[in-house]
Amino acid sequence: GRGGGGGWLYVRHEKERQQDARRLQQLRRLALGQGDFQLRDTAGAARSKADFLGRWVLLYFGFTHCPDVCPEELEKLSRAVELLERDPALPPLQPLFVTVDPERDDGRRLEAVPAGLPPRLLGSPAPEQVRAAASAFRVYVSAGPRDADGDYVVDHSVLTFLVDPDGVFRDCYGRSRTAEELARSVRGHMDAYEPLPA
Fold first, then answer.
1. Domain presence at residue 111
2. In which element (H, E) is residue 99 found?
3. Is 172 annotated to bind ligand?
């Protein structure tokens, strides 16, 4: 009679649970290797993705000599962070700025980045580390030709990445998003977030 059906349901449920657990394990392994970086912060301390596990991270690649795009994007990023920080129920958010121009962006310049982001910046004095981080995030970076003053512009993908406390990519935002839209999207991810089981 009825009992047999229940047993079958239990077996099916158990199987799904095991599949879920396996998928989550794979996700976790993937997350730790995905978009990893070895960079230095403005104080010169070595930082990697593992340092930020347990926190939501908004990560932006840019450079301080950028004439217009980066200042606008950083302004937008800090506005989005401000909007999210107004809600005490939400978990804290860590904005990270990774320079794609390590030749000119030393710690001093990075600390001068506007919009209340200074204590939360990541740079790197090593171009190969920046290149590795950019390629881990599939970010395109190319330094343009130098002018008579030795000045140059770095062409780069304008993208902000959202990484959850498990180190998993949740979303990626281009220039067209406003600070309000960005904050709304991040909040949605925070609300729907379920930690990967240990």
1. yes
2. strand 93-99
3. no
- The domain containing residue 153 runs over which residues? 31-192
> Which CATH number characterizes residue 176's domain?
3.40.30.10
In a domain? residue 95: yes
Residue 65 in tokens: 């000599």
Please choose, from the candidates 141, 133, 180, the residue with its C-alpha nearest in 3D space to the C-alpha of residue 161: 133
For the stretch 153-186, pLDDT in tens is 777 677 888 999 988 888 888 888 999 999 999 9
Beta bridge partners of 169: 163
- Structural domain total, the chain: 1
Domain for residue 20, yes or no? no
Distance CA 60, CA 96 (A): 6
**DSSP sequence for 106-119:** -HHHHHT-STT-GG
- Counting as low any pLDDT under 70, the low residues of the chain are 1-6, 20, 23-34, 106-126, 140, 152, 156, 198
